[in-house]
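Design request, tokens follow.
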């Protein structure tokens, strides 16, 4: 392999942090998904339900929901179709924009959220929050905040 002297290669410490971050991200999301399976939900399903349950009128424009969940409009449409079939959401036309659609949380979706949310929070606590000290949580937030801000800024750029 040719070495590029202009490339700022990761130090051993940086490589260790990066790979630990990747491991934690993958393993945690896998575990959280596994813990949602008894409820017939995926992480994507749950994220959509959370977004809708926290939105005014328990509804969001499909385009805003796609942006919020980092999904393409096409992928979100397929996801919403599956969730409609399960009775968790419905699509409603937007009165102010005939081309626009809202995803709306149904009563069944709301009831499922009430049932699942305590289990999901317990899973997040067990596999993440409770493994860190309050100081560790504060440090993690301070460390990851600038990365999250940077990545949010990058979303709208080509």
């Amino acid at each position: 392999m040719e070495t590029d002297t202009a490339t700022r290669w990761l130090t051993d410490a940086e490589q260790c942090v990066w790979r630990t971050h990747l491991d934690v991200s993958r393993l945690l999301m896998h575990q959280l998904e596994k813990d949602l399976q008894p409820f017939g939900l995926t992480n994507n399903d749950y994220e959509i339900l959370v977004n809708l349950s926290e939105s005014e009128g328990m509804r969001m424009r499909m385009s805003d929901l796609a942006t919020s969940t980092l999904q393409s409009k096409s992928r979100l449409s397929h996801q919403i179709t599956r969730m409609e079939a399960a009775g968790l959401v419905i699509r409603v036309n937007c009165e102010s924009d005939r081309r626009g659609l809202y995803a709306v949380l149904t009563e069944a979706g709301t009831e499922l959220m009430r049932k699942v949310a305590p289990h999901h929070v317990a899973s997040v606590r067990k596999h993440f929050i409770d493994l860190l000290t309050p100081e560790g949580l504060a440090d993690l937030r301070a460390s990851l905040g600038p990365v999250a801000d940077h990545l949010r800024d990058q979303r709208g750029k080509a």
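Comment from the thread starter after seeing the answer: thanks! The CA atoms of residues 37 and 43 lie 9 Å apart.
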